[in-house]
Amino acid sequence: MKSCLVIMLAIIAFVSCSPLSKEYLKQVDQDLTLKEVLKNADQYKGTTVLWGGAIIETINKPGETLIIVMQTTLDYEDRPKSIDWSEGRFIVKQAGFLDPEIYAKDRKITVVGKISGKEDFPLGEIRYIYPVVEATKLILWEKLEYQPFYHDPFYYDPWYWEPYPFRWYHPYHRRR
């Protein structure tokens, strides 16, 4: 019994909930928020951040891809939460080509990277200053699909507590 408990505790201790390695997490400044960087991006140049959110747009340029992201808070798995609350937007720069059909609008993304400055892009009728993150690690999350579950509100099994062989002979359990 004790050995089973020790094995379970060891598994819990060695398994991480985050898809990011500890090497990446050690480099990250956990206290730095997007709001602070928006005020003065030049002050935080070279700082490694862990941010996430929903993709707004993917722009391919020669030799690099820009991903405009609506920032959201991250949960315990470093997965972006709901986009109902945000501190703003940021741009992710990734070397090479990323397919805009894969990195599509409203997909969730988590980024580890260094702040490299800011860029001025149009946002509707105004100009918006985006902090730019040079990505070292990108995690594109799966789309979560709603799985409907039907629960019969009128289900009643009169032999629920009876021994196994008898409860399966009730007419409610016959296949149609």
UniProtKB/TrEMBL annotation:
Signal in keyword set: yes
Keywords: Signal
Keyword Hydrolase: no
Signal sequence coordinates: 1-21
Pfam families: Slp (PF03843)
CC annotations in GO: outer membrane
Coiled-coil ranges (or none): none
Annotated InterPro entries: OMP_Slp
Name the UniProt record assigns to this protein: Outer membrane lipoprotein, Slp family
Organism: uncultured Desulfobacterium sp
